[in-house]
Amino acid sequence: MKHIMNKKSKCSKLLLGTLMIGLLTHSSTLVSQDLPVKPNIVIIFADDLGYGDLSSYGHPTIHTPNLDRMASEGQKWTNFYVGASVCTPSRAALMTGRLPVRNGLTSAKVGVFFPDSHNGIPTEEITIAEQLKSAGYATGMVGKWHLGHKDEYLPTNHGFDDYYGIPYSNDMDHTGKITSMEQYFGRYTDTYEERTPEEFNVPIIRGTKVVERPAQQNTLTKRYTEEAVKWISDHKKGPFFMYLAHSLPHVPLFVSDEFRGTSKRGLYGDVVEEIDHGVGKILDLLKSEGLDKNTIVIFTSDNGPWLSTGISGGSAGPLFEGKGTTWEGGMREPGIFWGPGYIKPKLVTGMGTTMDLFNTFSNLAEVPMPTDREMDGIDLSPVLFGDEESPRNEVFYYRGPELYAVRVGAYKAHFITEAGYKLDTREEHNPPLLFNIEEDPSEKYDLAKKQPEEITKIMQVVKEHNSNMVKGPDLLKDRG
């Protein structure tokens, strides 16, 4: 009898296994059939724009109708993160699909690359542009690079066919003398409307050649849009990848005459609304050329608002803090995915990161993922093109080479906290601070004493994460 029961049990398990395999195969087939093959891809990346700076994300006076249209026709993600809270490491994460601590594009001493930096993105790093180029994509970049200004580090030597833009932040190459942090920030909190392009000897580069210096920043956003529109028109036969990385609304704020004084939010709002206008130009082009059915457009930003610049900085909305910190306001950004032919319109509250774009687009382009290195992205296709929940359940918040915080599901533990641009504010927490950031997105109510079991779960994730962590050498520290 026992033998018969075991036999029945084995048969049942076999049947169940067969059914499960069939269901999984069927599910995979459905997903596979729904996936676009080699769609055109456009990433629009803002600089220092906060979570709360778009009208579709709750801003009361900045009017962004084109981005709002993208959100209503596509997917609006409310838990979308960047790889770091400052420029260079955040852009490195987007380009490589890896935490920047792995490849040395972050530092404990220097936040970002400067005009006198010695290094740039390592040759052995594989960029998303190189991935797509290997699948036959035309690849173009317009805007701010900030992964090294020397020829060997510029976009055209890292997977892009064409490049037009400034190699680092628009506040660098300052022609005057700055003697203190107070003086630096005072230029943006008090006299921000008096800034002129001539104060910043920032170059515009085409390919690897300087074509303008100083960059006439009042028309920079307008010209970036025009360059991107022309490049897309020239490559409309596809497949193409356009990376449009706006230099603004990073300070100093500049705007073209047609947008100056048009926003209720002052100069900062003028700048954001001009970027939004450019987004509309690109969407209009895609529709007029019939490319909207086979193109995916993504809009996000590199990090949270630079709050130290006062009225010249943006808003993180309900999130706490901003640029330079590992609080939510520093690393959670608007994340909008648009593609009328592919993207299923909905509000997505699951987690995603800019690093996930590497995996997602590699999959769509049918390019194998690198297997000789740790990757930190996750393919978001099941959410973008189907009805599944986001496969991402963890976010790691690094500041420089140190892990300051980790989110697992709804809970986030802070091991270290520190203000973005104030000295002597570092605090280590043992036990860590604990927040349920689904219930408490502003990170106000510490649950460490009430729910220590959640800290235990997070510590296990940290242990596993650290077991695979090999940190790269600091490439940002060498200057002068």
Note down, in words, how this protein is organized.
The protein has 480 residues and is of the alpha/beta class. The chain is built from 11 helices and 14 strands. The protein has helices spanning 2-34, 65-73, 87-96, 128-133, 181-189, 220-234, 266-288, 328-331, 356-364, 381-384, 452-467; strands spanning 40-46, 75-81, 138-143, 162-165, 204-206, 209-212, 240-245, 295-301, 332-338, 346-353, 394-399, 402-408, 411-417, 427-436. Strands 6-5-4-3-7-1-8-9-2-10 form a 10-stranded mixed beta sheet, sandwiched between helices. It has a 4-stranded antiparallel beta sheet with strand order 11-12-13-14, with helices on one face. α6 (220-234) runs parallel beside α7. It is globular. The N and C termini lie far apart (83 Å). The model is unreliable at 1-32 (pLDDT under 50).
Task: Write a short abstract of this structure.
Helix content is 29%, strand content 19%. The protein has 480 residues and is of the alpha/beta class.
Q: What portion of residues belong to β-strands?
A: 15-25%
The rounded Rg comes to 23 Å
Order of helices and strands: HEHEHHEEHEEHEHEHEEHHEEEEH
User: Fraction of residues in helices?
Assistant: 25-40%
- Spatial separation of the terminal alpha carbons: 83 Å
What are the defining features of this structure?
single chain, 480 residues, globular, 11 helices, 4-stranded antiparallel beta sheet, alpha/beta, 10-stranded mixed beta sheet
